[in-house]
Amino acid sequence: MHPVSLIRLLVCSCYFSQGCCDIYDKLRERSTEFAVNLYQKLVVTENRKSNLVVSPSNVASSLGLLQFGAQGDTFTQMEKALGYNVHDQSVQDFTQTMYAELENSSQGTVIHLACALFVQTGTTFSSQFMEHAALWANSSLQPANFSERSSTATQINQWVTSNTGGGIQTLVPGDSFGPSFTQIALVSTTYFKSPWKTKFSFTDTQTLPFIGTDGSVVKVPMMHQTANVNYGQFETPSQERFTVVELPYLGNTVSMFVVRPTNKNTPLSCIESNLTSRSIALWINSMKRIKMDVFLPRFKLQSHSDLKKVLPALGVSDLFDPRKADFKGISDHGSLYISQAIHKAEIEVTEGGTKASGVTAMVLLKRSRMPVFKADRPFFFFLRQASSGSVLFIGRVTNPLD
Fold first, then answer.
1. 197-222: average pLDDT
2. Structure pTM?
3. 1.10.510.10, 1.10.10.10, 3.30.497.10, 3.40.50.720: which CATH number matches 18-195+300-365?
4. Where do the DSSP E strands lie in 238-324?
């Protein structure tokens, strides 16, 4: 699987003191909580019956970089939504170490993070902001001329394509930018690609029924494997039961967790609405190793989300208001604000493995006796990086053919 620029929290090795480990645990929980909150808000604002995929770490990375240049209420809102202050040295230390670890991919697993500030020629920056930006998620400064709308859009799209393994071709259309107001476009990406630890066999893939949210039945390519996996059965506070299976990628660096209601009459939303960072931690600590048959549909999802509709629901609204946005930490020139906040993510799951990519752009302006897990009705999933607990992608599948 692939993409997403994210805020990375580092591994707590024996080198760190107990205090550092405690900080890491808190950062991991807050990062996961942001991922859950973002996903739940998107489920509400998007069509509840539709497929969805989002890269929380990508969105968090963009907000983290903006937080370096934000002040006043604009800063406070982002701090509250993310759950941490990027000026905290412990946050920066954890993040920088994790970025380095992620880039050190092995065994066929590729995770690539990148951030770029596309800047209008002549824009001056605070030296302190530039120092922070240079150390944040493989950041770079890209000169741009926003008065040339088409060429600037092409420039940004080419950068996105090259940093998502070709997964995302077009983030912004040619007419996205006004001729005289855009100063900065912040774009962050995360790219992930990995084969499964235990591959699904192409010869075992069958065309089987998948029951949609409205009860309709479609025939889908259903992959199959028999493997030792982590598996758990749980229930919500209102006693809706559901099952969780962990499917690791090669190297055990990242795993996909697939969550499906046990009862076919239980709406997926009943499980989603009770999702929290603590419940995810509970599942992971409680799952048992078991040999079982796993059936998972082959699917490819792509979502395009307007974060201007979602972030205010998380309490982050001032950055979009030209009267309230305070980004004086970026530039002495006042009146910078976020004109657009676009997030696009895609994921493809096949027998061989997963490929996914995500990008966020923000524009500142002036069958056996063994147990069986069969995902033959709507389910949600998330890709989690093992050492940090960071959620790279999270999404839902209501129709694998859409």
1. 93
2. 0.90
3. 3.30.497.10
4. 241-248, 254-261, 288-297, 299-306
